[in-house]
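Example 4.3 (complexes with small molecules)
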Amino acid sequence: MNIVILNGSPRPHGNTAAMVAAYQEGAVQAGHQVTVFDVCRMRIAGCLACEHCHAKDPRTCVQKDDMQQVYPVLDEADMIVLASPVYYHGLSGQLKCAIDRIYAPGYPRRLRKAALLLSSGSPNVYGGALYTYQHSFLEWLHLEDMGVFVAAGDENKAPELLERLRAAGAALADPDERNVANLIIRAGDVEVRAPLNQTQAARDLMNRLPLTVSGTDSGVDYCCELKEGAFDEAEKQQGWIDGDVSVADGWFALLHSGQDQSRGYRVMVVAHLDDEANAQIRALPPQVTIELSLEEPYVGGVAPAGAGALA
Ligand SMILES: Cc1cc2nc3c(=O)[nH]c(=O)nc-3n(C[C@H](O)[C@H](O)[C@H](O)COP(=O)(O)O)c2cc1C
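Answer. The structure with flavin mononucleotide bound is encoded below.
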């Protein structure tokens, strides 16, 4: 995923910079793209509260300073990391200026996760920075907490701290991969897998597995009665692609063929079988009993190893 780190320390070889470097190293090793902005060495003014970005030109800041370099990267970022020395129990002023300027894009388009790195002289001085992180980033921007990491006094630059940060960076997983669960579809000797999507219907199905359904081949699908089940009507789509798996309105269906004639139907797709798996389904006998189960382990929602808790 794309990660943007805003480093709010003015000291290029300081304690915060060491935390940032270790976290970045781990994340890059794990295959993520990381962009670090040293905001103290950039020309980033405070927000003018002119409301140009809301009233006149949506998502566009009227101030053409170095924040213009940050905006496009932020809009492509899946995760933001705030890194700062603690100044008077809060984030550094330079970082706060950059944060306030996020007012222009509002909700950066892809942003889903956040982490906080703090360096201080004394322990237990994090209340101010934590308040901003908790309320403005986790709650206001609806981001998932990937951990808060702090270092006070002698802990700064300690090998154990830097190793912990490296491990946390390396443990970050792509938002989508993290939550993918595979649906196992078994009929006779055939067993295939289809990654479930993020729809409410898919989530609901996961809660109801394992299940056994049976049905007949209509020529385009195996249609099986499956009572109850929750789904969001708005998540239905027009037509299907051969290999789609659908659940809604009392039916479970393996839509193995007929995509060209499917435009007239609204379907609730929860998963998709690749061509090879779909060919196996297509070759099944006219009458089938299908066992549905979830591939283990399902790791959705588990925090990465080494992530600090927000206390
Ligand atoms: C202006 C200023 C204010 C500071 N305020 C605090 C503070 O409130 N509490 C604290 O524990 N340390 C405070 N410190 C110390 C720094 O947070 C600490 O030295 C930190 O490790 C510096 O990180 P750096 O090396 O990235 O600059 C302050 C330092 C400065 C320069």
